[in-house]
Each structure stands twice: as structure tokens, then as C-alpha cells.
What does this fold into?
Amino acid sequence: MAAYIIRRLLLLIPVLLGVTILVFTLTRISGDPGAAYITERMTDEQIAQIYDEYHLNEPIMTQYFYWLNGILHGDWGLSKSDGDRPVLVSIADYFPATFELTMVSMAIGVFIGIFVGTAISVRKDKLADHGARSISLIGVSIPIFWLALLLLYVFYLQLGWFPPGGEVSDKYILQGVPDYTGMVMIDAMIALDWQLTVDAAWHLVLPAVTLAFGTIAVILRIMRSSMLEVLNQDYVKAARAKGVPESVVIKKHARRNAMIPTTTIIGLTFGALLAGAVLTESIFRWPGIGRWSADAILSLDWNSIMGFTLLVAIIYCLTNLFVDILYAYLDPRIKLE
Amino acid sequence: MPKTVTKAKGPSTGPNVKPIKTAERIKRSLKPRMSELRTSLKLIVKNPLALIGLIILMSILVVAFAAPFLAPAGNSQDPYIIPRDYESPKPPGVPGHPLGTGKYGADMYYGIVWGARLSILVAVYVVFCSALIGIVIGAFSGFIGGKVDEVIMRITDVFLSIPGLILSMAIVAVLSRNIENIMLSLIVVWWPPYARLVRGQVLSVKESTYVEAARAVGVRKNRILFKHILPNSMAPMLVSITMDLGAVVLVAAALSYIGFGVPSGYAEWGKMVSDGQSYFLSTIYYNGEAMNPWWMVTFPGLAILLFVMGFALFGDALRDILDPRERR
It folds into this structure.
């Protein structure tokens, strides 16, 4: 197992190097990379000095290695749209909020997807099956920004059940919110401030549901089809013939095995969640990396956009690696070569 | 043994057999295809979801093609710019504006109709170009194999390791913002999955007996690839392409919603949602009556949903139809 993990991590290196080449190419297409460091009052000498300092007069390959060296040593440039803070500082600041949001969405999506997917697979072609499949069809077809706006319209404007956005209510921000992990709900729990915990959870509902909708749709579909496949297999028939109670057949014999293909999909949906976070966070004013990158886009802040792209690629690759390992763990038949 | 060989050659080359006329030959070669098509159509009509998908698609296509008649463009040079009256938004049902008006008094009906045309254009262009690139690269990679294949697959890995929306965001960010660059960025994102799909198919078809037979009788490599392997690798591509026609529009709409691409007031559904968003949670007054302008966001969003859903339904049905186990 350890050898497999190490081998997979090593295989990740060429892919990530490829990603850096891709991102570097994009930064050089975007225009003169020196422009970011030059201000109006600089003399020609100062400008030349900047070009020297950032190695912008060197051949493009050399420039790439200097750039890569910077990336590896934590120099991801300055985030123009975020008060000229270093990109990595911005990421460290905004990432926890996104992590909290995506994890909650993932939990909602996986839980509902697996539960409903199992439930409808034993009611194939009944009303519940058609209903759930229609909802899942809408889930994969609906523009996430539109869903967010519709939810806001119904649950904020018409019913007034949920707040329009933000992480916590304004009064708590004025009081000061505890900051241990950067995830407000977790921090509030650590500080044993239950009112704040409830308030944070209340703010989390709409963005998390928005983001989870697509995940529910995808997982429900795959869960249903793999359950249908498993339920047709001989060992399930054997279990039934033996007189094992139906609920045990479903939960113990069928669902466990149907979970295996679903696990792979969970890794893939994580990419969709991160992409969806850009839209969801901007609409719900959620202070995560998604909103930071959306702001960066609007103010043409290349360093932040590329930093975000690079970060997402790394997270996405690691998640899929993790899922592959989990997959091998869940299904002992798969030999890790 | 030699006798049977001459016999097998006989009918087409023998002097006393009448040459078949071209028309007849075409008819004969089409016959099995026509019957296949009929089976497919029967399967579509039998499946209610497929039928719904087909109806949605047909309606969108009709609207897209008939846009100049359904919503005649004004005298502006670009028909995709929605005509405005620069008044405050009006609700649906107002004379001349069946779906109401939006930001700067842009007519929603006009935007939806021309948006359909633009969406079809974007979807077909992006999917066609990426499928072409994907087929060429994937077929090449799978057919040649070896080191070339390895390198090409690692390149697709790189593209696939960044979620599509985020990669195309990064690409459009460095280019100037217009609909052409949105399409370009989507092509860059969309070809790798096609390449992998085609490669996988080619790899499996390459091993089949009929390809081996063709190779054994000395058919040229090119001909084997184009005549025997590729046509038999296309079924899953067809399903993917159909579904992606919708998915492309979903991502393109998200990109224009964030603020890439088209300027405000353009007949692009994603942009129309973002144009309406600033009014969405507010109150406007029309003829002294307070109301919430729900229509500005609802209609274009609904249009995107229907468009994507139509292709998803039809693609799903196509998968079943093309599956040999489901036929006959």
C-alpha cells in the first residue's frame, strides 16, 4: 500500500509540472509580466532594474525556471485585488471558508445522493424513481448561479427564512468572531459559543445547498445504476433465497458494493464543487477563495487567477489520489500494482 | 483451394455478370442503414423521455433558425445586441414586450430568441472543433501506441487535472473578453476528454478480429484506421457529443455570468441573468405599482435549463439506442 501511494505521488509530479507549464504560458500570454511591478513615477533605470530583478530579459525557458523556483519557494506573486498581499497569504486567509463550504456541501451531496439513490433503486420505474431522476436531471442541467438566485428569491426575499449572504450576522462581526481555524462554524464550536454556531450554520444553509445540488444529482444517478447492477447479481439472489431480510440484503449486501463506483465519482465531483464555489461564493458573499478569484478576474489580477488555478489543480489531483486509495481499500479485489 | 478463390472473386469481376448500376448499388448499400435508422426512430418514439428531449431540441432549433423572423433585428449592426428603450423595466405582458423588459429596457423576448441562436452557435462550434481535435489526436495516439501514446496521454492528464470552468476562466482571463475567446477557451478545455474516449475505443477496436483480418489481407494502415477502426469507435463519441452540446452552453453561460465575454445588453442567456441580478432582489415601480422584477432572471435561466436538459435527455436516450443489447 505504502509503495503504491509513493508511486502515485511520484506520478503526480509530471502532471503538476505540466500544470505549471500551462499556467506559466498563460501568464506570459497575458501581456508584459513586468507591468505589474512598474508604477508611473519610475525612471527608465528603475524599470530596467525591475526587469533585471525579475529576470524578464532572460530567454523564456530560463524565465520559467525562475518562476517555478519562486512557486516552489512560496513566492506566488502579489494579489493586486486583495490589497497587494502575497497570493499565498490570501489563499491561507480565504481557503478555510471555502473548505468549510465545500465539505458541508459534499457531505449533504453524498449523504442525500447515496440514501435516495439506494431508496429509488429498489423502486425502479415507480413514481418515486421517476421523480428523483427528474430532479437529478434538473440538477445536472441547472446553471448554478441561477439556482443560487432562485433560492435567494424564495428563501430570503419571499419567506425570509435564511440570510442573503455572508458567513455570520453583522452583530457578531462587530463583537468579534473567534478565529482558530478560519472556519467560522468550527471556531464558534471551539469557543463554545452556541449562538454563534447556530448563526454560522444558518448562514451556511443556502450556499451549501446550492453547491450540493449538482453533487446530489450526479451521485444519485451513479448510485442508482450501480445498485441496479448489484441487485441483479447472483450473490444477492442467493442472500434472498437464503431468507436474509430484505433490509439487510439492501444495506449490507448490495449497498456496500454499489458504493465502490460511487466513490470514484465523489472525487470527480470535488472539481465541480471548487468550480461552483467561484459562482456560489460571489453570490452569497462567502469570503472564500472562490470569491477572491472572482474579484481577481474582474480586476485582471493575473497572479491571483494563476495562483487559484494552480491551487485548485493541486487539490484536485490530491483528492483523486486519495479517492483511488480509498477505492482500493473498499474493494480488496483491486490489486494495487 | 485455388478454385474457391476464383469463385469468390467471380460475381463482381466475371465477364458474364451484369455490372450493377450506381444507383442500384447506392440503394443496396443504404438499405441496411435505413432499416437501422428506422429501428432507432422507433426506439426514440417508444421512450417518452427521449421524445421530450427531442421536442425540446426541435423547438430550440426552430427558434434559433427563425430568430430573424420571430424577433426582427432593428437597424443595429449586430443583431445579438438587444434593442433597448432606456426606460425602467416593464413586467411581462406589456404590449410589445411579451416577456417584459430588463436592464435599460432591453426586451427579454428578443434576448431569449437570439440567445437561442447564439447558444446553438457556441455549442456546435465548440463541440465540433473539440471533437475533431479529440478524434484526430485520440485516434493517432491509440493507433500508434507506444511512447507517442504515453506522451499524449500525459498531456491530456495535465488538462484534465484542472476543473474545466476554472481552466477556461484562466484562459479567457489572459485573452480579451469576447464570445470568440470564450469559445476558444472552451475548445482548449473540451478536447482532452474526447481524445481519451476515442483512444480507448480505438485501442479496443484495434484488437478485434475483423481488424486483424483486414491487416492479414494486407489492407493499408490508413485505410484500416479510417475505414475499419474509426467508424466502429464512434458510438460513445456520439453520446458524449450530444450531451456536451448542452454542457458547453452551461459553462459558457457561467463564464459570461462572471463577467467574461459579452458586454451587458447582449443576447447571451448567462449575461442576461447577470444583467437582471442587480434588480432581482429589489423593488421596481411600474405605473405606480410596486413589484419585484422576477422575470429578468427567471426567463433566461429557464432557457439555459431547458437547453441543457434537452440535450441531456436526448443524449441519455441515444446511449440506450446505440447500445446493441437494447436493439432487437
Remarks:
- The mean pLDDT of chain A is 84.
